[in-house]
Amino acid sequence: MKMKSAVVGSGIAGIASALRLKAKGYDVDVFEQNDYTGGKLHSFQRGDYRFDYGPSLFTMPHLVDELFGLFEVDPKSYFQYKKKDSICNYFWEDGQQFQVKADKEEFIKDASKTFNESEQHLSDYLKSTQNKYELTSSLFLEKSLHKLGTYLSKDTVKAIFNLSKLHLDSSLNEVNEKYFDHPKLVQLFNRFATYNGSSPYKTPGIMSMIPHLEMNYGAFIPKHGMHDISKSLTQLARDVGIKFHLNQKVDEIIYDNGEVNGLKINQKVENFDLVVCNMDVYSAYNSLLKKATAPKKTLEQERSSSALIFYWGVNKTYKELDLHNILFTENYEKEFDHLFNKKYFADDPTVYINITSKEVNGDAPEGSENWFVMVNAPTNCGQDWAAQTTYIREKVIAKINKCLGTKIQNYIEVEHVETPESIESATSSFQGSLYGTSSNNKFAAFLRHPNFSSKIKNLYFCGGSVHPGGGIPLCLLSAKIVSDLVPKA
Fold first, then answer.
1. pLDDT, position 138
2. Are 283 and 428 in contact (CB under 8 A)?
3. N or C end of the chain: which has fewer CB within 10 A?
4. DSSP-assigned letters across all residues of 332-350
5. Beta strand pairing status for 81-83 and 252-256?
6. Using an 8 Å Cβ cutoff, are 375 and 410 in contact?
7. What CA–CA distance (Å, rounded) separates 153 from 357?
8. Average pLDDT of the chain?
């Protein structure tokens, strides 16, 4: 008889874990409390506009393709995407604009000319980001940090001998200021701290490896939008025999004598040999594992930032905007001080605008665009989000109007809003944090919850709130780590 496994939650890491368990010979059931799969990676319709709910950046697509390869299936038969020639358009209030090209050499030449920085400085910086990634990826991203075997390798020894190059004792901002004189270029590279919900003034300089992922692998867009990633993987999972149970809330993970027995669902126990939890780990201990001893230090870590998102149907097109766009604050340090220390918005937020209708046919009517307008937000600590939303909406509109020379309020015909409070409610992410815990100290990677339970045999964890972190690539890697830890069925 085949061994039975259960996955609790069908976020991108949960679906990937289910596929990897199936490929190892397990029978797999996935339990999802919502009526859709994908977690934050889903979409919705408002009038004639389609919007992706959550993650908007797609990089390292080979991690998705790899899941189809487990079953010798051509990914293109399920899922298609294309690489962008440009990665992001940047705007400042003084009228400065800059487009980051996907070609690294083009970027270096353009940035050198625009910001009056030497091409050598730019080249050296990008080389250093690549070195950091190559020194640490096999240790920090691809293996469990909580198994002794991880440290008994040549890669670990090499990383230890090159600790000074990792900038663990400097902040990301300090590293960027060391390389660049122009404050706008420093700000551009400081932004990468937000990729894991952290502050560039607190997160260690090792995080400067993040630009390497974007500039080396590039930015991509799925043919039918970001939701197509989770939809295609869900379809693959169903085709290979994985069972999805939607609208099925799990009450408890059952274990006895330190070993998983199964799940309690609707007051009935279903037996499983192995369980993978894709729920936010803080919420999991407070709902599914109430009888277990919670890892207090881990759960008390500072949470990552959240988001306030305006989904706007705009009945106008803007040629100066691309798929990804950033309108920068005039005071970046003040913005992050408010986010992590004061727990409310600064009066001049950085605004991110994602417009999939630039690339995806049918996402907006002819002559219109679907805008995903996001500002970094503090976590939900009981703030008055109605008042905060009204306040920040005015600031966002003012920023857009100043940077683009428009009156955007005249062209918004559809609107939907998500706050940290509603994100927490919809996704069970504690306090609405987008990436679990922040990376605002140099030990953050080691303090993240491991991908397994040290006290309950055959209980594993995946997703953005555990090692190695949040975002699509890291969530997919968390599933891969779980698969490496799990024995063959």
1. 65
2. yes
3. N
4. HHHHHHIIIII-S--SS--
5. unpaired
6. no
7. 46
8. 92
